C-alpha cells in the first residue's frame, strides 16, 4: 500500500560489515579456489588468466550493480530489519514516474517530551515514523482544522512552541543545492551503458584498435560532458523558480515582528501585502482577514487574476477546512503574486492590525510541501532519462544475444580445433562478438530522439515537464477536449434576455429586476482601474452599461436606477452550478429606505427547483437556445428582510429559495478560428475525439456538431435523461426515446451519444457493464464536474485506451494529470516565435572536415538543447503546457510523439541489423584471420555516428497522416523485415567473401607488392592480421599477428560492411507519412551521398591517397564489377522486402471498439 502520492513503499535496513559484503567475500573465495585448482593441475597458462580475468570482471560488474540498483545493493551489503529503532537506512520505492528508488539515511531527534522521533527525507519531503500505526507518513500540516480554530489562532505565544515547530517542519526554503560538475560527471560515467561502452573500448584496445578506441572514447566523453553542462544549466533554472526571501511581519509572542520568509513555519500568523512585481507569496497561506487579488498564472496557468476572500466570511465556523474545495477562494499559493490587497476593515480578533496594514493569513504549508514545491519536485525529481519501453528493450537485446551466442560458439568451436591457437585471443574475440550485439550507442540515440522532440515543441511554445510522456503522444487513440476557453473563445457576445416574453429582448431594454441581478450577481473585481474576472460576467456588466467601483459598489452609467452594494457573495461552484449574492440599494420611492435583494444565477435546470413559480415556456425556451449553441444562464431574485449585523450568519440556502424568475441571459461563444481544422485533422489521422465540458448538454452538442465531433449521417444527438423515474435515451426535442440497456449495439451504431454528469453517476452505480461498453462511443460528456472529468479519463485508461486531454489549468487539473498526455492551454498574450537557425544547414561548410563537423554539431546540441522550462512556462496542471490558447498544440504534440515512436523503431531496426551482421562478420572473419584496420574501423564508426545523429534530428510532417505508427518494438513487421534483410545481407556477404577468396592466390604477387608500398607509407598500422597473404590461403585458422597487412578479402569485407551500413540506413529510414523523407532530410541525404561516393572511390581506386589512407587494395576489374553489382542488388532487394513487409504488416490500427 502506497504511503502517499510520491512513495509506494519503504523498507528498513542496517549495513553489513564490509568483510561480509556480497561484492567482496564471495569473490575472494573464488580467487583462492580458482588459483588452487589451477596450481594443483599445474596449469598456469591462458586458462588461469582467463579465469582470473572473468572473476575480476564479475566482481567489478557486481560492485557496479550495487551502485546502479538500490535493491541489489541492499541485497548484498545490507540486512533487512523490521524495527526502526535498530535500522539506520531506508529503501524508498517511489510511485512510477516520480523518480528513482533510493537508499536514504534514517535520522532521529528528541522532541521536547524527550520522545525519539525517527524520520527520513526523500525528494525534500520529510517522513516520520508513527509508532501507533507502525508506518511512516509525511509531515502532517494544519490544513484540516476547524474554521473556528483558524480564526482564533494567535500564532506562537512562546519560544518553546516555535522551536518545536521549526524542529519538526524545518525552514521555509525552496533551495536547491547545485551538485558539482565532477560529481555529476562521475554519476554519468558510472551509468550502466557508459560502463559498457568503456568495456567495449577496452576490448578494442586489446585488439589494437587504437585510433578507433580513442575516437569513440573522446566522442562519449564529449557527449557526457555536454549533458552534464546542460543538466547544471537546467538545475540552475529550476533553482530560480524557487522563492526569494522577503521581509514580512509575523505575529509571535503577542506582537508583530519583521522576519525573513525563510523563517516561517506552519501555524504562524503573517501579514501579506501587495509587493514588487518579482515578489511572490512565500508559502501556502489561508486568508483569515482582508481580501486579495492574486495572479496565479505562474503556477496554475490561470490567466485571470483570482479573488481571494477571508474565511471569517464563512458562516459555519464548526466545519473543517476542505483544502480541495476551499483552495480556490480562501488559499494563497506559494509562488503566486498578490496584485492587490484590501486591508481588514476592523479588528475582529485579539490580534491587532499589522504595522503594514496588510491582510492577515495563517501559514498552512512551507518549503517543498507547498504547491510551488510540488511543481519543482515534478520537474526536478521526475523521470530524467527517456528510452523505449524497458521490457521491450531488454527483450530486444536478448533476441540479438541469441545470434551473438551462436556466432561466438561457432568461433570457439572452430578456434579450439587448433591446439596452437591462443585461448586468450580466442576468448577476447568471443567477447567482442558478444558485446557487438548490444549497441553501446543505443541510449545516446534514444535520448537524442526525445530531446529533439522537446526542442521542437519548445519552439512552438509547448513545454514539457514529464518527457517520458512524449512517446505516449504517438500512441494516442482518444483525444478529449474541454469546451469553454479551449475550443471556444473567451471573447463572448451577450445576445440579450429571453424567457420574459416570446422574443429575445436587447440588454438595453431589459427589465429593472433583470438588470439588478446581472449587475450584482458576479465575482468581478477592480484591479488598477481594470475589471478582471469571468469573461461572461464582464461581458454582461458591459452590456447593461453598469460600472463596478471600489468597495463592491455598482452604479449605472446612464440610467436613473439606484446603485447596488454587494453585501455577501456565495461564489460559483462547478459542483453546485450556481452563484448567489446578497445586495442592497436605497429605494428612492420609499425615501431611500435600504432594500435587500437576493440575486441568483446558474444552470437553468438547477435554478428551476428554487423558483417560486415556473413559467410554462421555461424548459422549451432554454433548451431551444442551448440547442443552437448559446450559453444560457437562468436569473432569479427576491426581496428579503435582513439585518446587516447578521451577514456573517447568512447561509446560502436562505438566498436560494422562493425566487422570482427574471429571465435567461443568452451568451454566444464563438469557436476559435482553428478549432474546426484541428478536430478535422485529428479525425482524419485515425483518432477518436470527444468533448468533456461542464456546460449544458444541448449547448455542448451544438458545438460538437459544429466541429464535426458527430457523424454527418446522424442528425440526432442523444442524451441520457430521467423520465418518469426511468432512464431513457432521448433527443433534444424528446421525440426519440430508447430504453437504457436495450440493444446497445443498435444504439451505438445509429446515434451519437451524450452523457451528463448525473447519468454518468447513475450508470456507474447501477449499470457499470453498460457504461464500459458505451463509454468509448460517447461524443459529448456534458454537465460534468471536475471530479467526473477525472473519472472519465481513468475509465478510458482502464479500458486500455491511450488518452489525451486538452483543457485549461484550473477545472481540468485532475483529468490532465491522469491522461497519458495532458495539455494545459494558458490563455496569454501572443508572442512571436523566433526560430533559431540551425547550424545543421551549414553542414557542408567549406573547408570543414568531418571531425570538425561532429565537434560543431555537439556544440550545437549543447547550445540548442532544451533547458528545463522556466518560471511561467510550466504549470502544476499538466505534463505539457502551451503558452498559446490554440488547440493546434494537440497536433504538435501528437506529431512529435509519432515522430519519436517511428524514430525509435527505425533505430532499433538499424541497430539490430548492424549488430547481427557484425556478429556474423566477426565470427567468420576471425576464424579466417581477417579484420578491419584501425583507420577503417574509425571511418565506419564516425559515419555511423553521423547518420544516427541526423536520423534523430528528423522533423515530423506538417500534417498528421491517417496511418498510425506501430506502437511497439516487437511486431510482425519489424521481426520479418529484420530477418529477411539479414538473409539478403548474409548471402551477399558470404558470396562476396568467397568470391574475394578466389582472387587471393591469383593476385598474391601484386598484393605483396602493394603491401610493401603500405609498409613504406603507413608506419603505425594497428590492426591484427595474418602474417602474410599466404597464411590466409594455407592456414586460415592461424592466430592473427600484430602487424596489419591488407589483402583483397579484408578490403572487400570493409567495402561490403560500409555498403550494408548505408543500405541499412537508407532502406529502414521511415520517412513519410510521419516525418521528412530521405530527400527532405538534407543533412542525412548529403551524408548518405558522401558515404556512397566514398564507397565508389574506394571500390574503383580512383583516388590513390584515399585508398592508402584507409588501407584498401586495388580490386581486379572483374571482382569490382561483381562487388558493385551485388551491392546494388543487395540494396534493392532489402528495399523490396522491407516495403512488402511494410505494406502487409507495417500500418498501426486504431483499436476496434467492442460493443
From TrEMBL:
Protein's organism: Cinara cedri
Enumerate the UniProt keywords alphabetically.
ATP-binding, Endoplasmic reticulum, Magnesium, Membrane, Metal-binding, Nucleotide-binding, Translocase, Transmembrane, Transmembrane helix, Transport
The topology of this chain with respect to the membrane is: Multi-pass membrane protein
| Transmembrane region(s) | 18-37, 49-70, 185-204, 210-228, 394-413, 972-993, 1083-1101, 1121-1145
Q: Which family does it belong to?
A: Belongs to the cation transport ATPase (P-type) (TC 3.A.3) family. Type V subfamily.
Q: Please give the InterPro entries that the UniProt record associates with this protein.
A: 2TM_P5A-ATPase (IPR057255), ATPase_P-typ_cyto_dom_N (IPR023299), ATPase_P-typ_P_site (IPR018303), ATPase_P-typ_TM_dom_sf (IPR023298), ATPase_P-typ_transduc_dom_A_sf (IPR008250), ATPase_P-type_domA (IPR059000), HAD-like_sf (IPR036412), HAD_sf (IPR023214)
SUPFAM superfamilies, alphabetically?
Calcium ATPase, transduction domain A (SSF81653), Calcium ATPase, transmembrane domain M (SSF81665), HAD-like (SSF56784), Metal cation-transporting ATPase, ATP-binding domain N (SSF81660)
Query: Mainly resides where?
Result: endoplasmic reticulum
| Ranges of residues in domain P5A-ATPase transmembrane helical hairpin | 16-81
Would you kindly state one Gene Ontology biological process term found in this protein's UniProt entry? Answer: intracellular calcium ion homeostasis
Domain spans labelled P-type ATPase A: 250-350
Could you name the Gene Ontology cellular component terms for this entry? Answer: endoplasmic reticulum membrane
One GO MF term on file is:
metal ion binding
Report the PROSITE patterns cross-referenced here.
ATPASE_E1_E2
- Name of the protein in question: P-type ATPase, transmembrane domain,P-type ATPase, phosphorylation site,P-type ATPase, cytoplasmic
